[in-house]
Specification:
This protein has two domains: 118 residues, Aminopeptidase, CATH 3.40.630; 128 residues, 3-Layer(aba) Sandwich (Aminopeptidase). The protein contains ten helices and eleven strands. The chain has a seven-stranded mixed sheet with strand order 1-2-3-4-11-5-10, sandwiched between helices. Strands 6-7-8-9 form a four-stranded antiparallel sheet, with helices on both faces.
Length: 279
């Protein structure tokens, strides 16, 4: 049983990865599904290295206040995680984005980077300022699938290329993509914006998160990004009643980071997610 003071200390460190991760680890604690390998409560060197086993998958987490942890901690993480690598069960490792030495170790051990980035929360004014738009607002329609494929592939091309992700996933998986868009539209979690018969952009939400917010490259730099963002914030805060709105941004997406910081989002977490792929 984890003492309450230790529990809160660990969760505050895990929250630096993301609020959702904190919720996940908290649930694991309640079900005794977590193993704490290291927990340092020193205010200067505090950190945690733990593992959650959930539905057949192992999730390792490391979050330390000091960006460069000492060699003893690195050796402990390496010796502890190797048996899990040799196991047949799926294995993921999420590291606080500032802990470069641990990230280097995880990659050396053969983990594949999934995404490295930041989590932001909106701290701007509420109620939101109203920005009228001449764009036509629609849900998703199957007849517009090709427009959505083009929008996502062109808008995310450089991001996908920079991170080694597939640059043509949407074109190669139209059936899956169409199902996702249709489901999001049915649950009022997708809104698209059109100028005549041209798809300018769209956003997709999930819970209290803005999951995607994309503007076609031909319409970027014209203020449409802010139009979509304010519309999404209005939907989440004013209509759905969420008190906080979050989003995740890849570390390599410098333009998006500047955009969200400029529009009253604040960084609250930093993460580097990895998966070990068994041969």
């Amino acid at each position: 049983m984890i003492a309450e003071q230790q529990k809160q200390s660990i969760l505050s460190l895990i929250a630096r990865l993301s609020p959702n991760t904190e919720v996940f680890v908290r649930a694991a604690m309640e079900k005794s599904g977590i193993t704490i390998f290291l927990h340092d409560e020193n205010p200067i060197t505090s950190g945690v290295f733990c593992l959650v086993r959930w539905e057949g998958t192992n999730y390792a987490y490391a979050s330390f206040m000091q960006d460069m942890v000492d060699d003893q901690v690195i050796r402990l993480i390496e010796s502890t995680i190797r048996p899990y690598i040799e196991d047949n069960d799926p294995l993921c490792f999420n590291v606080y984005g500032g802990n470069k030495s641990i990230i280097e170790l995880v990659k050396k051990l053969g983990f594949t980077p999934d995404m490295e980035g930041y989590e932001f929360v909106y701290q701007g004014q509420v109620p939101l300022e109203f920005v009228p738009t001449k764009l036509t607002i629609k849900a998703f329609e199957q007849s517009a699938l090709e427009d959505f494929v083009t929008l996502f592939e062109q808008s995310y091309y450089q991001l996908n290329k920079d991170n080694g992700w597939s640059v043509d996933w949407y074109a190669n998986n139209k059936g899956i993509f169409s199902e996702r868009l249709a489901l999001k539209s049915q649950t009022d979690e997708l809104v698209s914006f059109w100028s005549g018969d041209r798809l300018v952009g769209t956003y997709i939400i999930s819970g209290k998160y803005i999951q995607d917010l994309v503007v076609h490259p031909e319409y970027q730099g014209l203020g449409y990004g802010k139009t979509l963002l304010l519309h999404a914030l209005n939907l989440l805060i004013e209509q759905k009643g969420h008190q906080s709105v979050y989003l995740r941004v890849a570390k390599s997406n410098a333009a998006a980071i500047r955009f969200y910081l400029r529009n009253h989002f604040v960084e609250i977490a930093s993460f580097a997610e990895h998966t070990f792929h068994k041969n």
